Amino acid sequence: MIFVPIWVDIMHIQRVKSKQGSKTYEQILLRESYREPGAKRSAVKKRTLLNLTKYPPQIVQALELALKHQGDLAALTAMSDITLEQGPAVGAVFTLLEVARRLGIEKALGTHQNGKLALWQVIARAHSQGSRLSAVRLAKTTAAADVIGFEQGFCEDNLYENLTWLSENQEAIEKRLFTFRRGQAKPELFLYDVTSSYLEGEHNELAEWGYNRDKKRGKKQIVIGLLCDEEGEPVSVEVFDGNTADPQTFGAQVKKVAERFGCRRVTFVGDRGMIKSAQIEDLESVDFHYITAITKAQIRSLIKKDVFQLGLFDRQLCEIQDGDVRYVLRRNPLRAKEMAASRASKLAAVQGLADAQNQYLAEHPRADDYAAWKKVSEKNSRLGLSSIVTVTAADRRIHLEVDTEYVAYLAELDGCYTLKTDVPVQVAAKELIHDRYKDLAMVETAFRTCKTSHLEVRPVFVRTKANTRGHVLVVMLAYRIVRALKQAWKDIDLTVEEGLRELDRICAMQLSVKGGGACLRIPELSPIAKELLGALDVKLPLMLPKSTVEVDTKRKLASRRKS
Predict the structure, then answer these.
(1) HEC assignment per residue over 104-157
(2) For 444-481, how does the pLDDT look when each residue is reduced to its tens digit (9 = 90+)?
(3) Extended beta strands in 343-481, E state
(4) Beta pairing partners, 507
(5) How confident is the model at residue 7 (pLDDT cuts 50, 70, 90)?
(6) Average model confidence (pLDDT) for the chain?
(7) Facing residues of 330 across strands?
(8) More confident position, 375 or 315
(9) How far apart are CA 442 and CA 269, in angstroms?
(10) Secondary structure letter of residue 45 according to DSSP
(11) Tell me, what's the pLDDT at 64?
(12) CA atoms of 190 and 182, how far apart (whole Å)
């Protein structure tokens, strides 16, 4: 997507009258005059920034005054009925909103109250992860209500209710986003992977025991499936019960691509263990293809059946055709060295512990040799060495027996991997098949960003299925914004978090007029803020109307009403 920078010349308020039958209507519009880069100075265009018709007259008056004296703050402060004070932070929330608009997120969610609440949840998550309460507090300290244009106030309860609305409308939202991004050009490749996220609470309706990728013992979890296009842009996210196996999630994605998004001639890329016989049948039923990897056990089975030989892995990139199925083989030398080094390190760790325990037993005649054996056995198991190392105890000594033949057997496939596909050779050569499988790393990046940095899907402060799914959808939409920021700021020596903190330093001056009207004036930008906004082609407006809606925590609202 190409963003065309716009050179802004002047802001003004315009009153437009129109007649419908016998009635005359007036619209009050905040407009900008501008010219595009390369255009003649005479080629001035105008655009509407905001419809002020429904705003209180006092706010319109404040804006008119501010625009009239925009170059002379001293003249404003000299007026007895004008006050100037520090206003809210505006830079980051305005930028995040602009990116959300360009990505089609605002349009997909809608401009009604639920759509605006959802949009704020996405922006707040991209700004700084936290609970719904955190999102309300952020709205109080920033120009969220002024920038987004809320017509009603809200508290954290409204945001929790909004998660249910998001869940109920997820299909329509994802479809609108897909159409906005792709138009009529349908992707022919989809990347799909799953992850899990453990839960701290006990009462989430989707929480179940399952394969925990986070290595958190004693924690129930949810399973999250992420579907991306060929560029790694998220298309759809889905939440499953925590005990759902990876392949069980796959059929829903095939149906989604075929029916919801109307795609044809599609190839699915999935990790090893994802696309099995049942999943291949699902794909064949809609004439889709697949690219996946097979397990080490499956590789050995195919070698045993003489489909291919071990020596073929030492070639640069080798392909074997078996009926309609193609296998692409490779050994990664660097990965092979890493695996060998890791195995040696683990063996050394167990041996070191055994030596330490033997020394302790020798120095302490009354020490429990069973406890020493148990300690070494548990470490051996924890490091995954039970199949190659046997731990025994005799004569108050711990003995390790290493199966060297089995170690050599395992080392044969160090760094080896095999891709499996039914994509015809005339459609994609082995090199392209290999590259497309490596694209799954983009999905892993998305998971890593959503789980462990910046966005942090955890902790999940919700209980119901609908709210959990709404929460995960918010995180996915926020990831799209963060991804766009990361791409735009790749040449700036700042992380996304640091960039947003710099933009948060842009605080408006609040101009208040006696009688209740107020507006926000954006100050001169720092060099780093100009660089960040310039990389995004975002231009902050000179003025913004000050919203009058009430945003606060439910506790503060209750206290205020009581008093």
Answers:
(1) CHHHHHCCCHHHHHHHHHHHHHHHCCCCHHHHHHHHHHECHHHHHCCCCCECHH
(2) 888 777 766 656 677 777 889 999 999 999 999 999 99
(3) 389-394, 397-402, 416-421
(4) 89
(5) very low
(6) 87
(7) 417
(8) 375
(9) 12
(10) E
(11) 75
(12) 13
- pTM more than 0.70: yes
Tell me how far apart the alpha carbons of residues 552 and 133 are, in angstroms, rounded to a whole number: 9
Q: CA 302 to CA 421: how far, in whole Å?
A: 15
How far is CA 481 from its chain centroid?
8
Model confidence at 2, in pLDDT bands (50, 70, 90)?
very low
170-285+428-460: CATH topology: Nucleotidyltransferase; domain 5 (3.30.420)
Give the DSSP letter string of 74-85.
HHHHTSTTEEEE
User: Which residue reads 């106030």 in tokens?
Assistant: 153
CA pair distance 416, 337, nearest whole angstrom: 11
Single-letter amino acid code for the residue at 136: V
292 CB burial (10 A radius; 0-12, 13-18, 19+): buried
The three state secondary structure string of 218-276 is CCCEEEEEEEEECCCCEEEEEEEECCCCHHHHHHHHHHHHHHHCCCCCCEEEECCCCCC
* Residue range 404-426: mean pLDDT, rounded: 94
Which DSSP letter does residue 329 get? Answer: E
CB atoms within 10 A of CB 143: 26
Domains of the chain by residue range? 55-168+464-563, 170-285+428-460, 334-411
| Angle, vertex CA 400, rays to CA 396 and CA 405, nearest 5 | 155
Q: What does the block give as tokens for 541?
A: 């407006």
**How many whole angstroms separate alpha carbon 231 and alpha carbon 211?**
29
Which SS3 state, helix, strand or coil, does residue 214 take?
Answer: coil
Q: Is 301 helix (H, G, I), strand (E, B) or coil?
A: helix
**Would you state the pLDDT for residue 128?**
87
| HEC secondary structure over 449-515 | HHHHCCCCCCCCCCCCHHHHHHHHHHHHHHHHHHHHHHHHCCCCCCCHHHHHHHHHCCEEEEEEECC
Q: Which residues of 361-395 are buried (b: 16+ CB within 10 A; e: fewer)?
A: beeeeeeebeebbebbbebbeebebeebbebebee
Task: Report the C-alpha gap between 100 and 433 in whole angstroms.
Answer: 33
